[in-house]
Write a structure and sequence with these properties.
149 residues; alpha+beta; Nucleoside Triphosphate Pyrophosphohydrolase; 4-stranded mixed sheet; 3-stranded antiparallel sheet; 4 helices; 23% helix
Length: 149
Amino acid sequence: MKKYKIPVSVLVVIYTPDLQVLLIERADRPGFWQSVTGSQDEDENLRQTALREVAEETGLDAQAGVLTDWNMQNEFEIYQEWRWRYAPGVTRNTEHVFGLCVPQPVEVTLSPREHLAYAWLPHDRAAEKVFSWSNAKVLRALPERAGAA
């Protein structure tokens, strides 16, 4: 029996105290830049999902930084080309936002199956570069959110 993705995900903004942001380029859509994202697995809470996705996509241990649940949610329509990953009839996803503050830009180890490149950019430039409106919205809110962390 085919396992479908759960239409609940995390978006983890990895940033430094001076608001530089890590972006990663999707392997399945070259030119599409984003923060760390990923779907929740069964029997996993959202924090566990965030920790797992950061490790899988960057090789970083999120517990070594300050991982904060921003208590923000975005709901969006799943891109048509990715709907086959979800159960029939599922068209919307709820994304939960986390921030991970690290002391300085660090080298990351990308999963080549998922990502081609990474870059550290000032948060405002990062917001202009990402393909997703929800990612851009969160990056624009970073100065306020980082001050509350």
